[in-house]
Amino acid sequence: MQRASEASVEVNGATVGSLPGPGLVVLVGVTHTDTPAAAAALARKIFYLRILRDERSCADTGAPLLVISQFTLYGDTRKGRRPTWQAAAPGPVAEPLVTAFADALTELGASVQTGVFGANMQVMLVNDGPVTLILDAEPPQGAGG
Question: Most-buried pick from 8, 39, 41, 138 (CB within 10 A)?
């Protein structure tokens, strides 16, 4: 997730989603253990997270969100010179969860635009701050409570 002063995503030269003003760009990767409940919980976390200017959230300000699916977030580069994508859920599993995530944001009252699942997308953004955070649906193993 990145705080952005502006952003857009294009497919085949056409803009398919954009931030009409400052907001958040949310790159969503799905793994095999993710669920609709986890997608909804993550949407709530992001919508209410106070990372915008003056420690405000999208819920506080009405700031828009640009949601883009990105399976490469689960790339594993520990061995060799080619990443593996085994941790990324296959498209038929991942696509409904990315949609559920975007829908959950919309149900919370968020202004949401999206990329196109599975498409070759060009994402342009101006990272504001810069502020970039990694959020997981589940806390990492070994994390304290």
Answer: 39
